[in-house]
Amino acid sequence: MTSKLETEIQPNVERNSGQLQMLQRGVMTGIPIMLGYIPIALTFGVLAKQAGMSLVELTAMSLFVFAGAAQFMGANMLAVGTGAVEIIIATFVLNFRHFVMSLSFMNQLRRIALKSKLPLSLGLTDETFAVSALHSDEAKKEHGAFFYGGIILVAYLSWVFGSLLGGILGDIIPQSLSQSMGIALYAMFIGLLVPSVKKNLRIGLIAIFAMLINAICVQLGLSTGWAIVIGTVLGGISGIYLLGEKEK
Amino acid sequence: MNHFLIILGMSLVTMFPRMIPAFVVEKIQFRPWVNRWLNAIPYAALGALIFPGIMTVIPEQPIIGLIGGVVAIILASLGLNVVLVVIGAIFTVFLWTL
Fold first, then answer.
1. Under DSSP, is residue A55 helix (H, G, I), strand (E, B) or coil?
2. Which of residues 56-85 of B touch A (CB under 8 A)?
3. Are A136 and A10 in contact (CB under 8 A)?
4. What is the pTM of this model?
5. Which stretches within A51-83 are classed as H helix?
6. B7 touches chain A (CB under 8 A)
7. What's the pLDDT tens digit per position in B36-52?
8. How high is the ipTM of this complex?
9. Is there a contact between B9 and A91 if contact means CB atoms under 8 Å apart?
10. N or C, where is chain A less crowded by C-beta within 10 Å?
11. Rounded to whole angstroms, how far apart are CA atoms B67 and B57?
């Protein structure tokens, strides 16, 4: 009797602990995002409140939009009385870069079922994409979806609760510190990129191409959103020649 | 109420571009060169996200962002964990703006 029970329960317990372990590893991997998001989310909460949004509205925006730059822009446009259609179109343009990133991320997650891919795709931001894409091995492991879910969970909760707190408490971080924390996400991007460049210098070339193209587009007067899309797409094209079949 | 409609609109136009690729990769097998392109996207995106944006950390003094970036590159080259790279860069910018 006991042996029968054990054989029935054991696989389930093992599966659950495997999932939990991957989730925990994802959460740990996502900690740098939290470090970068919290000060920005607090600032968003403060600014959105000043722009005339209610606490419920600004939290709802973080819950349902989950896109930093677009939310700052949206709050500013609301404050100056811009029309709804214009705000929504501007949001689409600014966030269109996520389409390109998601195409890359979802291709990396091919082996994961659609029912897991869909919620993961909704959690894609510049930061969750950057961290997830540079941990591509987990996509091939069992319960890999939980690893990426963990990264997104930390990011999402930091963002939502950070903006709520900012709306409630106002400016709690001294200005000199919050200003310095503006470097956090850039430093995280650098911290992710450098180890890959050390392994393969060509990766550095791809990144530099993208930087230069982005800078040129900005100089030509394109909006940040389009400049990043064009820099990413064209920089990626250089990778078709620079990266071999197996390199990642 | 109007605000909520705007938030709903912003949410939808952000969701669709994120979601559509999940369906695309279910339906389509890419040629090898497309896969190479998609594999290079993260590095290109990192490049485009870092520069020139990093110069706007302290908008009046673009050099401070760049200095923070150089410190981050050095710390990351030494093999430090990303969290430490981030903290080191924050500390650098903080000292520079004192």
1. helix
2. 57-58, 65, 68-69, 72-73, 75-77, 79-80, 82-83, 85
3. no
4. 0.92
5. 55-64, 68-79
6. yes
7. 999 999 999 999 999 99
8. 0.96
9. yes
10. N
11. 11
